[in-house]
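Hi there,

I know you've been waiting on this one. I reran it after we fixed the sequence typo, so this is the corrected version. Both the input and the resulting structure follow.
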Amino acid sequence: MLLCKLWWFLAVSGVSVRALKLTAAEDKVSVNVRQNASLHWTFHINKGETYRILWATSTVDASGTPRMKDVLFSKTEKQATATPSSKMPPRYARRVKILPPATLFIQRVDLSDEGFYICEITTAFRAIRKAINLTVIDPPRIITQLPIELTWNEGDSKELTCSTDG
């Protein structure tokens, strides 16, 4: 009953109920070192709504709540594309970009890129954020040069020793 009265009051008073939705395609993304990573968010904002979107690195506090660390990009309803933050850490320079509508693309990830990334949308009425945890895997690599061709007689045994990294 109270909800119906509130809805009626908002409709009569001319105040519109604002819709805002932000989702992450995946909560966790894993990629190998030197591969590219795409972190996807989708959002819905009512037409005509003023907003600001931020993409940032994030830490997660003891309660599991994501907290912004370094802002990478921002966008408002007046901008056609997201703009890089002047405070973006140098290690991201020329390796990260925003692909429309809301994908953070990281080229040639390295182990230091591992962690949480966040997208936050703020309107006049509300702010919401979603985090994605990026895991970077460093698979082992064989660093010993092995002979191109090996031959032995049936029944013989050979031992190959090689070094790996990763």
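Quick highlight: Helices lie at 2-13.

Best,
R. S.
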